Amino acid sequence: MTPDADRLPFFVYGTLRPGEPNHDVHLRGSVAAETPARLVGAVLYEGPGYPYLVEDPEGGPVRGELIAALPSAYERLLAELDVLEDYAPGDPRNLYERVVREVTLLDGTAARAWVYVAAPRVAARLRASGAVIGGGDWASFRAPR
């Protein structure tokens, strides 16, 4: 069981955002609050139907939401999101790594959150030949043009 001090909110920037396909599947009934937020020091890259967040000190902001889980749903949600994001602690085959980063809410307040970032081998491939999502906003990128 995760200690309460480690029950950080999640910063979501892709298919878990409101209106995106994984939001209702994984977050419906499990969320206490959703707040628009930004993450600096990162860039979004196109993936196969979802984005990858790659850390880059010069990048950002990446737009997303800070998701606070209901206490009763936290453990289940954490495990479910780890599976969705193809993350297992220490596994070199991970597509993503779950890390703690500081995000900024629209009012300027800073908050620590879990963020799924591209695993090192994935990030290296994307930096070499990936397509950057301009503006750091998956929802705008996916909107009909």
Automatic annotation (TrEMBL):
SUPFAM superfamilies assigned to the protein according to its UniProt record, in alphabetical order: Gamma-glutamyl cyclotransferase-like (SSF110857)
Record-annotated Gamma-glutamylcyclotransferase AIG2-like domain positions: 10-139
InterPro entries, alphabetized: AIG2-like_dom, GGCT-like, GGCT-like_sf
Pfam families: GGACT (PF06094)
Source domain of life: Bacteria
Matching CDD domains: GGCT_like
Protein name: Gamma-glutamylcyclotransferase
